[in-house]
Amino acid sequence: MARANSDNPKTSRFQKSEATASVKRPKAPAKAETQFEACFLGPKADNLAFFRSLLDEALEHHAEWRRSFHLDDPAPFVSQSDRKSEAFRHTQERIRETLHSLQELLKRSQPFFSPRYIGHMNWEAMMASIVAYFSASLYNPNNVAWAGSTGTSDLELEVGRDLLRLFGMSESAGWGHICAGGTIANMEALWIARNLKAMPLALKRACLRLENSGPEVRLGDGTVAPLAEASDEQLLRAFSSRQAVDLREAVIERLKTSTEGRLKDSELDDLLEAETLQEKGLHWEGSGIDLGVVFLPQSKHYSFKKAMDLLGLGRSNIHYVPLDQHFRMDISVLEAAILETAATRPILAVVGVMGTTEESAVDRIDAIIDLRRRLAEERGIHFHVHVDAAYGGYARSLFVDDGGGHFMAPNEMGERLKELRIIGDKPDSPRAGWPSAEVYQAFESTGEADTLTVDPHKLGYVPYSAGAIIMRDRRFRDAIRTFAPYVFPKPKPGEPDILIGSYILEGSKPGAAAAAVWAAHRILPLNIGGYGKLIGETIDGAQALCAALDGARFDVDSAVQVRAFVLTPPDLNIVDYVFNIEGNTDLDRMNALTALIAESAFGYRQREGESMLQKSFIVSSTDLTKEEYGDTPLVALARIGIAKSEWDRVGAMKVARSVVMSPYLTTDYVDEDYVARFLERLQQVMTVRAAEIIKLAGSLRRVVRK
Q1: Residue 355 and residue 407: Cα distance in Å, rounded?
Q2: Strands (DSSP E) along 109-181, which ranges?
Q3: Alpha-carbon gap, residue 597 to 565, rounded angstroms
Q4: What element of type H or E holds 567?
Q5: ∠ CA 632-638-639, rounded to 5°
Q6: How much is the pLDDT for 701?
Q7: Domain housing 101
Q8: 85 shares a domain with 200
Q9: Is pLDDT at 194 greater than 50 in this prediction?
């Protein structure tokens, strides 16, 4: 009988090559060398033969790997007699039938791959990412710990470095990892902010336990005092996130010196950790600790409500900042609110959004960073800055040079946009003004944020689920770390920094996601000639859709006309618009018309007897409510002809929403102009649904257009 684990097994060709050569890493593509059309299966499965060959090769590589492990093991494990048995054949037939049924069920899905789908944040994933995910799934790695993911942990850490470079953070000082999505990443960011805010209190208590005054610290009022003598309230206001981890290192050095080496590093580490928030909970010694307020724009993602709940911070401690007419956070209101709040409470964090989920608006991250600096210098007010770039983050590739990898100056970027024929590239294009100065400055400043969320499974075009979070200071990890001896033990001095599970919110997670993102980044570089060109075409399509829709008129009959209005020019690639009957001033009526068109005619719900494949175009819709958005919609409503009194009465605005994630909306890569086709379809809808629209118009029908 063959041995289960031979001391001198036969060696295969695979094992020889593995032992004698390191894995060949693909080089970054040369300038403007990558063509994104080669990266996707395509709306009509255009690259099917190539895709099939990639899947076949991936499966063959995996099969060879399996066969190569201990050639002295008995083979085959599945015998000919097994294969000939009725039960074996029946089982395999059931597998086939089940998967055939699944294929039919999956055809109920929405056609994300088509330029006719402009509904939610979906398009098709890159072929290489799908194959990478499939390939890694065959090995089934669990990236929570190195022992379960020796093939993919390195890939995840490499992706983290990719993203740090993309956002202008130091890859040696910072750290990043893959997670399930933006919700988990945002939770982790606030978890970090919470524990860093409380870290000076833990350090103070550790010093008191050792009867040590600790290092001197500068407090918010400008005075200097020993750490142990400062009040908790003073300490909660006196430190930024980076200053908190600097203080931890200073305390460690101070305690090492004062104990003259009597405490080992591990003992000192345990002493400090025993006093932390994660160990003690939200109440130290029976007294409540106010960790402060989190400031969010009204356009925030719902994940922050979940995070405040789960972290014990309470949703009531969110302060929602009103938006300006471009649906960006109003920085002047933010400053006033911080100053008012800081008089009585600490400020925990300010969150800016880079690509809101409803409008793709880009908050003034640069202004938030500048405000943090000014308030720290002038008022001693400190807070954590988090950027939620889950949707829009990858658009920063458009600002990164594909030659030197630097963030381009505006004129340099403009020239590259023209050379690569990306945005506003036609002589008569009304769209050549992108990016605005505000959007440019926001993207330029991301490297100064403390933490940042970005989703590769959105504008990174990789399969779900693959979110990510990066932090500009890897020491932030110590505020949330957890070690477990059986899976990720505390590292010893000099060991490589390969731990992931110790420093993240999740436990088990697929190494396949890391493989998918890693492969995508190797093929489409994170610069203007790679991802930038792909995402730039989607922005160009959104700009074209915006220009065509805003003010467009559609005839219902000789006495009724419908107009389309865009709420605001998009910062990225989401267009929000409404439909109103000419002469209408009733918000309920406008909402009903927009719902009729967006949901009944173009929504993803299928009418009886209708197939999803019969949909001409698919859009989504949303409601901008007074509760969520305050009076932000008033500027758009005034342009449409709806009075403030109507907004106060109804308190909600139905909006059609088109997310342009396909690069094929304009004629840059295909002969069909889908923007023009979309407007033609709108006119057809007005004609087909004329009776419903005329009924909705009511007395307005008597208003005959001149």
Answers
A1: 19
A2: 117-118, 175-179
A3: 13
A4: none
A5: 110
A6: 59
A7: 76-110
A8: no
A9: yes
**Amino acid in the structure at residue 368:** I
* Mean pLDDT, range 267-280, rounded to an integer: 82
Q: Coil, strand or helix: which one is 553?
A: strand
Q: Are residues 559 and 696 in the same domain?
A: yes
d(CA 335, CA 375): 9
* Residue 505 placed within a domain: no
- What is the CB neighbour count within 10 angstroms for residue 202? 25
- The tokens describing 52, both together, are 């099939």
For residues 566 and 696, state if they share a domain.
yes
Among 355, 338, 344, which Cα is nearest to 573's? Answer: 355
Q: Say how many CA atoms lie within 13 Å of 63 toward its Cβ.
A: 6
CA pair distance 381, 374, nearest whole angstrom:
9
> Residues 204, 104: one domain?
no
What does the buried/exposed string (b/e) look like for 128-165 if buried means 16 or more CB atoms within 10 Å of the residue's CB? bbbbbbbbbbebebbbbbbebbeebbbbbbbbbbbbbb
Q: For 159-187, what is each residue's pLDDT tens digit?
A: 999 999 999 999 999 999 999 999 999 99
Helix (H) or strand (E) holding 626: helix 626-629
Element (H, E) at 365: helix 365-379
Confidence band for 2, pLDDT divided at 50, 70 and 90:
very low
User: Token digits for 605?
Assistant: 């719900």
pLDDT band, very low/low/confident/very high, at 284 (cuts 50, 70, 90): low
| Domain end point (choices 84, 110, 136) | 110
Same domain, 102 and 199: no
Q: Pick the last residue of a domain from 287, 305, 334.
A: 287
If one counts the domains in the chain, the total is 3
Q: Are residues 224 and 102 in the same domain?
A: no
CA dist 9 to 19, 61, 150, 512, Å? 14, 21, 22, 30
- 564 and 692 share one domain: yes
Nearest to 39, CA basis, from 548, 535, 562: 535
Q: 554 with 688, same domain?
A: yes
Q: Tokens 């405490």 sit at which residue? A: 263
Looking at the DSSP bridge assignments, the partners of residue 351 are 386
Helix locations, 210-280, DSSP H: 232-238, 241-258, 265-274, 277-280
Active-site residues, by number, are 486
Specify whether the CB–CB gap between 656 and 114 falls below 8 A. no
Strand order in the sheet with 553-557: 117-118, 618-625, 652-659, 574-581, 560-566, 553-557
Does the residue 581 lie in any domain?
Answer: yes
H or E element, residue 48: helix 48-68
Distance between first and last Cα of the chain: 96
| Per-residue pLDDT, 610 | 62
Judge whether 656 lies within some domain: yes
pLDDT band at 281 (very low <50, low <70, confident <90, very high): confident
> What's the CA gap between 423 and 431, in Å, rounded?
7
Residue 568 included in any domain: yes
